[in-house]
Amino acid sequence: MNTEAAVGLLHLIAAEPTLLPGAPTEADESDLRLRVREGRHLCLGCGQPSRCTVVVNSEAHGPRWLDLCSPCWKTVQLANVVGDGPEGAGDPGDG
User: Fold this and answer.
1) Predicted TM-score (pTM) of this structure
2) Partners of 56 in the β-ladder
């Protein structure tokens, strides 16, 4: 995924957060690590197995999981800064 695609992904998530699966309201570091260790979630950016996950907070739809592989996570982080993307993505739960 390139930065332009990542910016588009962030805008899509902001516009339609229900594309992401719901996350627990009080998700903590152990929840993030467990989700990554499960190994059954695919990167939203490229479809490879995810190695990082964050909780994106949607005012209208509550917390949502954003699963990404490491390269896509780095690109999304850059896009969030460069593209002034949506807030709410925290540190990844690396497993």
Assistant:
1) 0.75
2) 64
